[in-house]
Design a protein that fits this description.
34% helix; alpha+beta; 2 strands; two-stranded parallel ribbon; 3 helices; 64 residues
Length: 64
């Protein structure tokens, strides 16, 4: 998962908003709260795919 620090950097560089899927950072030990604290918007899986212009993924997308 992207780190909360990199979310903050991307927002500082001019990204308007950054969606993070709830629970996305759990395996990397980043809490949802850590992402919220730096300005990310927590959303569900469906919102990430329907409302995003650019998607950053560590693993290939999975079809549900």
């Amino acid at each position: 998962a992207i780190t909360p620090q990199n979310v903050a950097l991307m927002l500082k560089k001019g990204f308007y908003r950054i969606f993070i899927e709830r629970g996305a950072g759990e395996q990397s030990e980043y809490s949802d709260h850590a992402y919220e604290n730096v300005g990310a918007t927590l959303v569900d899986h469906k919102t990430v795919w329907s409302e995003s212009n650019v998607i950053l993924k560590v693993r290939p997308p999975q079809i549900e």
